[in-house]
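Work Package 3 (structural annotation) set out to generate three-dimensional models for the target panel prioritized at the project kickoff. During this period the team completed the workflow that converts sequence records into discrete structure tokens, so that structures can be stored uniformly alongside our sequence database. As a representative example, we reproduce one entry of 205 residues exactly as it appears in the project archive.
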Amino acid sequence: MASPGPDVMPLDRHTALEERLFHAVNVDGGRLVDAAALVLSSHAFGITGGLLLAVALWARRRDARWRLVAALGLAILLSDGVGSQVLRPLVGRMRPAYALPEGAVRWIAPAANVGSLPSLHAANFFALALVGTVGWPALGPLLYAVAAGVAWSRVYVGVHWPGDVLAGALWGTLAALLALAAVRLLPRRGKGPGPAEGGAGPGAP
């Protein structure tokens, strides 16, 4: 995930309701739950997941493989790049690990004192989920389950508010829609098998 550009100190911008929701998720679930959350929150998991999805779409969708892979790349570029360089500095919201008193947060994953809204982990995985679902609808439930798990993990490990991951999910979805619309404007590189043979549903690039 990219780091924010402008050097702006974030401010504490959360509500009492959101703090209660945060504490309901940011609990000690035991070693196994901690380990699962840390894996879901790791950069390695995000990179590996994105690459595996790109390979799966490339192999499955011979009719639109280059468009789908291009849409994946563009969606991540938008969700992560614009999210870190524009949205986070614009909102300037402090992470719970820095906003709440010491000892009030179970903080088990690294996070710098930079803007927390939107959650780029959530944004990127929801962007991947939408593009992947368009390219291979049968993968949709799995992709969205993983994206939801990543969003949960960011609150569980103590580095995001619930509103951060919700905003991330919405932003990632919008970024994916923009990426899919953009690749549909590109000229096709010859004809391939139709949606039934390639496994795509309506709306595929």
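The chain has nine helices and no strands.
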